[in-house]
Write a structure and sequence with these properties.
There is one protein chain. This protein folds into two domains: 7-124, Rossmann fold, CATH 3.40.50.2300; 134-199, Winged helix-like DNA-binding domain superfamily/Winged helix DNA-binding domain (Arc Repressor Mutant, subunit A, Orthogonal Bundle), CATH 1.10.10.10. The protein has ten helices and five strands; from the N terminus they run βαβαβαβαβαααααα. A five-stranded parallel beta sheet has the order 2-1-3-4-5, with helices on both faces. The longest helix is centred in the middle third of the chain and has 15 residues, at 110-124. The protein is an alpha/beta fold. The two termini are 25 Å apart.
């Protein structure tokens, strides 16, 4: 995607999580680089191109909010997305005060992560919020009611079998609807479909 941020930086001490998030982001067309600590990222940052930062709330040595505050102190306004396994109101309040772009609970859903990244991208471009693509919004509006229902369940990461059970239709019928939705939105794969749906304004990143 031409409007994607140059880089996405994943700061987390869990290597499996870093790799998993990087895989999701790569499928969506982004370039990601991982760091195992806040200090490692801060040491590298002066040589890095601007990008969106995804950071774990609780890490040894430096928390996600600590990292964000260190960045602000150095004049860096790159958008920060915080992940946490134990969200609570004080944490959310601190995140809001710190200017975090999004505060997501683990296990984070793909659609939540991508929506938050796109919101971060909007911030990098100087916009407060992501503006829906009018052409994509028009394509979504052209979907039938059933196609919209199928798309909504795809955004929830439901399998074809699960969608069929929810809607009370055959799995082969679900596949037909999915093909129609992908054709109308211009998607070639499932992750791209999610990205296009978000760009159309169907899903917004949770408020920080």
């Amino acid at each position: 995607m031409s409007s994607s941020p140059a880089r996405i930086y994943i700061v987390d001490d869990d290597p499996q999580l870093r790799e998993g998030l990087a895989h999701w982001l790569a499928q969506a067309g982004y370039q990601a680089r991982g760091f195992d600590s806040g200090s490692a990222f801060l040491n590298a940052r002066p040589q890095l191109p601007a990008g969106c930062i995804i950071v774990d709330m609780l890490m040894p040595g430096m928390t996600g909010l600590d990292l964000q505050q260190r960045l602000v102190a150095t004049g860096c306004s790159w958008p920060v997305i915080v992940l946490t396994g134990h969200a609570n109101r004080p944490d959310v309040a601190r995140a809001m005060e710190a200017g975090i772009v999004a505060f997501l609970e683990k296990p984070v859903r793909e659609v939540e992560l991508l929506a938050a990244v796109m919101k971060g991208q909007a911030h990098l471009l100087g916009r407060i919020e992501m503006v829906p693509d009018p052409d994509l919004a028009h394509r979504v509006a052209s979907l039938t009611l059933r196609e919209r229902q199928v798309l909504g369940l795809v955004l929830e990461k439901k399998l074809n079998k699960q969608i069929a059970g929810t809607l009370g239709i055959a799995e082969t019928t679900v596949k037909g609807y999915r093909r129609a939705v992908m054709r109308k939105l211009g998607a070639r794969k499932a992750t791209e479909l999610v990205v296009l749906a978000i760009r159309a304004g169907l899903y917004n990143a949770p408020k920080s």
